[in-house]
Amino acid sequence: MATVSTNLTTNTHLLGWIEEMAKLCTPDQVVFCDGSEGEKKRLTEFAVSKGILIPLNHEKHPNSYLHRSNPNDVARVEHLTFICTPKKDDAGPTNNWMAPDEAYAKLKGLFEGSMKGRTMYVVPYVMGPLGSEHSKIGIELTDSVYVALNMGIMTRMGKPALDMLGQSNDFNRGLHCTGDVNPERRYICHFPQDNAIWSFGSGYGGNALLGKKCLALRIGSALGRKEGWLAEHMLILGVEDPEGNTSYVAAAFPSACGKTNFAMMIPPKRFAGWKVFTVGDDIAWLRVGEDGRLWAVNPENGYFGVAPGTNMKSNPNAMKTIQKDTIFTNVAVTKNGEVWWEGLDGEVPDELTDWKGQPWKKGSTEKAAHPNSRFTAPASNNPILSKHVNDPKGVPISAIIFGGRRSSTVPLVMQSFNWAHGVYLGSTMASETTAAATGATGVVRRDPMAMLPFAGYNMADYFQHWLNMQKHLPQPPKIFMVNWFRKNKDGKFLWPGYGDNMRVLKWIIDRAQGKVATQETLFGWVPKQGHLDLSGLDIAPEAVDEATSIVESEWKAELESQKQWFDQFGERMPKTLELQRQMLLSRVS
Ligand code: OXD
Ligand code: MN
Questions:
Q1: Which residue puts its alpha carbon closest to atom 3 of ligand 1?
Q2: Are residues 190 and 252 in the same domain?
Q3: 217 and 204: one domain?
Q4: pLDDT of 136-154, one tens digit each?
Q5: Residue 444 — pLDDT band, cuts 50, 70, 90?
Q6: How far apart are CA 120 and CA 299, in angstroms?
Q7: Taking residues 333-357, what's their average pLDDT?
Q8: Which of 98, 167, 206, 283, by CA, is between 20 and 30 Å from 514?
Q9: Helix (H) / strand (E) containing 82
Q10: What pLDDT score was predicted for residue 440?
């Protein structure tokens, strides 16, 4: 059996656990990752030699590589993701549940001998700024060099994590094995009471990079409830006005609904002198600060973004970010070794190698890049990275934004009447499904706070936790709902989106600072006529009217359909939210 030895740590809790896991998985060798440049180079060369990474054109994409996953392993698998709490009710009706004993027994069977002939990489990492008392330390044991390299981009990985851990036993224990990538033997199991994650049978980011969805959201949300904070599926951005004042907002949009684009937005010409800074593009940890405001930290250190649709118009800053030091997964590649995906700028090449490694010709009905193909890029490459990204206390949040992908009903922007109404808007959020998870796309489903796949405990308790936060928040952020995706009768988007979302953001910030009046409707506050800055916007005023309109009959149907959603939580559903629904409904009936 491989020996577990390192001069990076003497932590007996850690070494004992690795010993135990190595005994179970029987790898040929155990390699501790220190996070150094030399190690990255070595692991990359090894991955290239095994065909796990394919070098790209080094002039066009310095230090960047392509990875092709198994075609059956391209997205998160929500139906194979489990919350393993002792009581089923603690996982709630929206999560898959397995009893901890049963899950450990089942997965032990799979992990047993699973790393024979392979290396077990020990990946120590920190979620959150180094040295912050609020950051969390995780150790991921993985048989995948691709995972180890991605974790090196996405987290603060290596020796600094071990130094921060010291002799403490307080770390997330993550065990990951790609196995034979058989979907029949694929399980992503979370054990909140043990601060542990066992993931078997997938190499896909959301299933295998355990710091991200598994620790920072599922386990994180459960820890947040226990410790009095919130782990949320939210981007964080700062907006600086021409006078130099910066306001921060956090926004929850479901997977593949434009969080990265919004977080890296370039304001349109009309907003000369305004600047946007990215703090995070996917996850926010929110805590009450000493000043009674809500403060946000991005626990990640890189971006795992959706490639298709990313271009110089939709997200120039992302294009610059992925210009070097990037791992691309399941994109297409040109003869010249350049990456390509649907929606990239320029002409569609005549010939490509598609995401499966097959020849592809222009005009083919098949996609050249997988719709959920991704880039993994370091945050430090982002030209508009906030200078507060490593600030242990984070940034103060003035507004929280919830947004779904809805063809109808939900207006471009609406402010909640108060905190409880805002929590209600978040709890009833719905969105059309995307390629970020396996299953049909374009189906409307409730995705409260964009957390449906990520809440690590009963969603009704999660709603209650949100409501309870108000008691500790003397200066709560204002809560808003947005919808960039409303369509007209012909199925065309009504709002241009992307940089023009700055117009909506400006109204949100003005409202959060009490700088502008508003128009009350039955369902929330909307911009008064003329208050949304539309100057220089090249679309018909009627389209904006339609995008911002509230149609009572649509809302009546919406409110009625929310009953079923709430009812499934039974007694655990907070009455406050059901009463919000009834009160709104009573006004339209
Ligand atoms: C992601 C997701 O990868 O939400 O961020 O699926
Ligand atoms: Mn996400």
A1: 206
A2: no
A3: yes
A4: 999 999 999 999 999 999 9
A5: confident
A6: 25
A7: 98
A8: 283
A9: strand 81-83
A10: 85
Alpha helices in 78-158 (DSSP H): 88-91, 100-111, 145-154
For ligand 1, say whether the CB of 144 is within 6 Å of any of its atoms. no
Which pLDDT tens digit goes with each residue over 327-340? 999 999 999 999 99
Q: Tell me how far apart the alpha carbons of residues 101 and 364 are, in angstroms, rounded to a whole number.
A: 49
List of residues 6+ apart from 533 with CB closer than 8 A:
270, 503, 506, 507
Single pTM value for the model: 0.97
Averaged pLDDT score across all residues of the chain: 96
Domain that holds residue 496: 232-301+387-588
Residues annotated as part of the active site: 257
The Cα–Cα gap between 537 and 497 comes to 11
Q: Is residue 69 part of a domain?
A: no
> DSSP for 32-76?
E----HHHHHHHHHHHHHTTSSEE--TTTSTT-EEE---TT-SSB
Amino acid identity, residue 39?
A: E
User: Per-residue DSSP letters for 246-310?
Assistant: EEEEEEE--TTSSHHHHHT----GGGTT-EEEEEESS-EEEEE-TTSBEEEE---SEEEEE-TT-
- Give the integer Cα–Cα distance in Å for 333 and 331: 7
- CA–centroid distance, 141 to ligand 2, in Å, is 23
Q: Which residues contact 359 (CB under 8 A, 6 or more apart)?
A: 351, 352, 353
> Both 345 and 403 in a single domain?
no
Structure tokens at 22: 């190595």
Q: Is the CB of 447 under 6 A from ligand 1?
A: no
- CB of 374 sitting under 6 A from ligand 1: no
pLDDT above 70 (res 342): yes
